[in-house]
Design a protein that fits this description.
Shape: globular
Number of helices: 0
Structural class: mainly beta
Largest sheet: 7 strands, mixed
Distance between the termini: 40 Å
Number of strands: 11
Strand content: over 45%
């Protein structure tokens, strides 16, 4: 079983920055893909960004391109989401997801990000 612990959420003013962290209970070298999703009240969960563990290729939703950066640290078994120039519409619960080599998915518990306008 893979466990994920997220941190870094909080309340920030529009234009501000936050960095989310997702620490995995095992070496991330055993994983295929890590990603961040978000869910705002009354809306469906949506993909924000992903990163392939091998090679490091990334994907970003159009709504966050140029503002958010996803990265991983092998030594800390952690994936990060650096969020800059935050907007009110970025307010949501952010979830970390990992996918192992067998295609199994594991989710974190979520961390709240609130952006005041």
């Amino acid at each position: 079983q893979v466990q994920l612990v997220e941190s870094g959420g909080g309340l920030v003013q529009a234009g501000g920055s936050l960095r989310l962290s997702c620490t995995v209970s095992r070496s991330i070298l055993s994983l295929n893909l890590m990603g961040w999703y978000r869910q705002a009240p009354g809306q469906q969960r949506e993909l924000v960004a992903t990163i392939r563990i091998a090679g490091g290729s990334t994907y970003y939703a159009d709504s966050v391109k140029g503002r958010f950066t996803i990265s991983r640290d092998y030594t800390k078994n952690t994936v990060y989401l650096q969020m800059n120039s935050l907007k009110f519409e970025d307010t949501a619960v952010y979830y970390c997801k990992v996918v192992n080599g067998r295609g199994n998915e594991y989710w974190g518990q979520g961390t709240q990000v609130s952006v005041s306008s």
